[in-house]
Amino acid sequence: MTATLTPGTRSGGPRRWPLLGNLPAFARDPLAFFESLRDGYGDWVSWALGPQRNILVSRPEHAGELLGAVESTFRPTELGWAFRQLLGNGVVVATGDDWRRKRALVQPAVRPRQVRSYAATMVECADALAGGWRAGQRIDVHREMAGLTQRIAVRTLFGSDAAGREAPISTAMATAQRELGAEFRGLTLFLPPWVRTPGRRRMREAVAVLDREIEHVIREHEAASAAGAERDDLLSRLLAARDETGGPLSRKELRDESITLYIGGHETTSTTLTWAWQLLSGAPAARARLTEELDRVLGGRLPAYDDYARLPWTRQVVKEALRIYPPIWLISAVATEGASLGGRAVPAGTSVWTSPWSVHRDARWFPDPEAFRPERWDADAPHPVPEHAWFPFGGGPRACLGARFALVEAALVLAVLAQRFHLDSGSDRAGVFPGLTLQPTGPVLATLRAARPHDGGAR
To answer: Quick check: 24 and 17 in contact, CB under 8 A?
Structure first.
């Protein structure tokens, strides 16, 4: 027999404002807010976002159970007007049979065999970027990584002939990201869809640009296909995909899945690489071990897909950066009839939240949690990481489909660039803005240092 958990009666929670609940503290700094709930009230905390009653769970086993139960006894949370405007009803948003159909159509495009075919593009784009760098140059790391991953995303998703569409897509996506984060942390989250605000106007304009650009690329692909041309990009795979009835993705579905894959292939990787460079700059021992591995395994050549498995320390650098700065910083689901966690029944309609940011920075699972230590992931590490304590891409049946793509891309790009340069950011450290993904609050400045005295930037 399970005990019934009623929001507000078990393990307490922070005091709430009338009508607003805990929205003021959440809006001010959601990352610090979740850590304060964990540290001040325990692993199972009741809180309120406006009129909405929530529970935050902070134990890995509860997070894993929650993620595994979505689509059975939990359903995804509706994350507001702006979120729906950007992602439509793509695989991240869809539920039930609609989600199962879309996942079955999209998943084959990002399986390991397909990611292998995109590795050469990842390496080629990174090598071209490094070729334009010079020792002593001062760069904005985030801008450089965003530009690089945009090029990779556009080429792998839409094909090399769509390269000219990078600028309008990236500008519109940056606006959409900013407005989505602002809405999620403010009162507009609770406004009905018909209410117009300046932020919603900017969001509509950005989405209109994205819709126009993606429609143009879809038409180009359809024309090429009609002419008998064969393409090997993600959009071509989506156009060719058929469900169990033989039906293709609709035009709207193609748009929604293109946006979803673009975010997974660009936003996630660019911020992961930005944080990785910042962390490596302050960890000379970790950077030296990275250099040693790259010299030993690659010997000065460019990496290929198969090198991903041969570069464990490079992968651990990426994994540790994802621990400290998980791109997906918040996950929630709504209980349906029969839901339970940890043997406790959860009433239907209760929103249950978990935060990778908070769990990843918990000293119980990661000693000295704010320290950058890729050796945590060594096979013989003295403190094994508990199952479900690391989940930067979510988990369970609704785990991010692009996780493999993002991990391979981050490791290969890091390997290409780190062979030739150190990125020295000195004592400068960027703050964190929790939008759609964790973004730096401003420029991440660094000076390029040649990895070897003879390498000034030219290959």
So the answer is: yes
CA torsion sign for 179, 180, 185, 187 is positive
Beta strand extents in 188-231 (DSSP E only): none
Measure the N-to-C terminal CA separation of the chain; round to a whole number of Å: 68
**Alpha carbon distance 315, 62 (integer Å):** 27
Distances (CA, A) of 90 to 21, 68, 247, 274: 31, 20, 16, 27
For the entire predicted model, the pTM comes to 0.89
The CA distance from 56 to 25, in Å, is: 15
Amino acid (one-letter) located at 259: I
Which residues have CB under 8 Å from 219's CB, separation 6+? none
Whether the Cβ atoms of residue 31 and residue 39 lie closer than 8 Å to each other = no
Residues 334-360 pLDDT 10s: 999 999 998 999 999 999 999 999 999
Q: Which one-letter amino acid corresponds to residue 71?
A: E
| 39-64 pLDDT per residue, tens | 999 999 999 988 888 999 999 999 99
Spell out the domain ranges in the chain: 1-88+329-391
Give me the architecture of the 1-88+329-391 domain, per CATH: Orthogonal Bundle (1.10)
Q: CB of 73 within 8 A of CB of 246?
A: no
Residue with tokens 């989250």: 189
